């Protein structure tokens, strides 16, 4: 009888114990791959959230705070910056374009972003992919708005829907701007970024909503910043997205903005800020990986214990194999092969379970959190973890294999 047939016969003779062992290994591989895959996907989703923006400018604060509230809508600006600062930066000869944003309002828990029409032209995501409209167009009138894909889908809004915005970022607000309803005129295509979970209105409308005394109703064709100079234009911008005319000019422009004399400003490079964010999270990533590896190690220890416990049951089996002429090294090889087979099956099963889980939960994550997960984890990572698991299994299986080897040398056809 070949080793292959012996191996399968041995496993099927203890199929219940072998199945439980295989399943525990699958769970540990699922945990290990999940941590690695989610880490990689979170990093990719963060990095694809903004593209083509050379600098993000805000009032003096940490670069992480500026990055988080301007891109990911997490937290709040420490202070607002003046409209005059925006005008000065926009007119800088090194600046190709500048897009202001104003935060602070919400609708049904979704953040409202006051901005200009240039937002949909210059702000990109992933590898400089432009925002596109699934339906409708950009806003033109003060009381028109554009919705991200996730907002429109979750709230079942369509073009022409009249909605009322609320003051503050909470889902429940006791201060609503009922005097100024907005009409939905555009819905963006899904991007898998925080932009899907935002509502966009003309920036001059923010002042109107907050009843700034100097703001009345700008003419639809009047360019913002060239007509009425309002109190709102003096103080209510949260941040600016800036594009430089050349990559060489970015650092010089950053230094110039950081030394702004009118008011203290911070200018950050999004890529460097993201790198700092990941450095802060590196300890968490390492901890999760260590825990996952320990879970895998514990499962393989359980497999080793199972194999050791089965040695007494298999003493008669080993004696018969020896009587049939099996060499002691074949007994060792059989135990090792059994351990490797269970680990291999468990690893493949864990990978399959993860893929099914990703396919099942990805639509919910995209809908609830605008977070996109690839359905298939990186094959290179899977094979590296599988190789590590097989190596550990082979090493730990030496304990029951050597025990079987020793018994096979001492045993005969009879056993007590």
Q: How many strand elements?
A: 13
What's the Cα radius of gyration? 31 Å
How far apart lie the N and C ends?
Answer: 26 Å
User: H/E element string?
Assistant: HHEHHEEHEEEEHEEEEHHEHEHHHHH
Helix content: 40-55%
- Tell me what portion of residues adopts beta-strand conformation: 5-15%
Please state the structural category: alpha+beta
How would you state the average pLDDT, rounded? 81
Poorly predicted tracts of residues: 212-235, 412-416
Number of helices: 14
Biggest sheet statistics = 11 strands, mixed
Shape: elongated
How many separate structural domains? 2
How would you describe this structure to a colleague?
This protein has 2 domains: 3-46 and 281-410, no CATH class; 55-268, no CATH class. Helices cover 53% and strands 15% of the residues. The protein has 14 helices and 13 strands. The strands form 2 sheets. Strands 1, 2, 3, 6, 7, 8, 9, 10, 11, 12 and 13 form an 11-stranded mixed beta sheet that branches. Strands 4-5 form a two-stranded antiparallel sheet. A hairpin with a 3-residue loop joins strand 4 (124-125) and strand 5 (129-130). The radius of gyration is 31 Å and the shape is elongated. Mean pLDDT is 81; it is low at 212-235 and 412-416.
């Amino acid at each position: 009888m070949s080793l292959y047939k012996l191996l399968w016969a041995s496993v099927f003779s203890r199929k219940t114990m072998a199945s439980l062992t295989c399943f525990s290994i699958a769970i540990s591989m699922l945990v290990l791959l999940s941590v690695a895959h989610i880490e990689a996907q979170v990093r990719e989703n963060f990095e694809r959230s903004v593209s083509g923006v050379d600098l993000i400018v805000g009032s003096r604060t940490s670069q992480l705070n500026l990055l988080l509230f301007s891109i990911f809508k997490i937290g709040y600006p420490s202070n607002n910056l003046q409209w005059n600062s925006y005008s000065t930066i926009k007119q800088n000869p090194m600046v190709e374009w500048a897009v202001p944003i104003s935060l602070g309002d919400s609708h049904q828990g979704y953040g409202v972003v006051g901005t200009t029409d240039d937002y949909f032209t210059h702000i990109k995501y992933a590898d400089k992919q432009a925002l596109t409209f699934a339906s409708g167009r950009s806003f033109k009138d003060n009381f028109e708005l554009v919705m991200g894909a996730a907002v429109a889908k979750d709230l079942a809004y369509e073009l022409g829907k009249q909605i009322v915005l609320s003051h503050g970022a909470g889902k429940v607000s006791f201060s609503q701007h009922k005097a100024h309803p907005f009409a939905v005129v555009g819905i963006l295509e899904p991007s898998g970024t925080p932009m899907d979970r935002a509502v966009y209105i003309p920036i001059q409308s923010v002042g109107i909503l907050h009843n700034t005394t100097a703001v009345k109703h700008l003419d639809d064709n009047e360019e913002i910043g060239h007509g009425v100079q309002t109190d709102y234009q003096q103080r209510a911008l949260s941040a600016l997205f800036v594009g430089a005319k050349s990559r060489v000019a970015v650092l010089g422009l950053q230094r110039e903005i950081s030394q702004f004399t009118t008011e203290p400003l911070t200018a950050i490079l999004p890529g460097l800020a993201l790198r700092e964010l990941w450095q802060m999270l590196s300890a968490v990533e390492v901890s999760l990986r260590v825990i996952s590896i320990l879970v895998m190690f514990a499962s393989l220890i359980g497999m080793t214990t199972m194999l050791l416990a089965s040695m007494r049951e298999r003493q008669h089996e080993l004696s018969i194999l020896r009587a049939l002429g099996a060499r002691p090294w074949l007994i060792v090889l059989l135990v090792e092969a059994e351990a490797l087979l269970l680990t291999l099956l468990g690893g493949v099963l864990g990978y399959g379970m993860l893929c099914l889980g990703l396919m099942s939960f990805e639509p919910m994550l995209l809908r609830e959190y605008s977070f996109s997960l690839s359905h298939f984890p990186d094959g290179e990572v899977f094979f590296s973890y599988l190789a590590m698991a097989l190596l550990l299994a082979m090493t730990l299986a030496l304990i029951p294999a050597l025990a079987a080897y020793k018994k096979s040398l001492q045993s005969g056809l009879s056993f007590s």
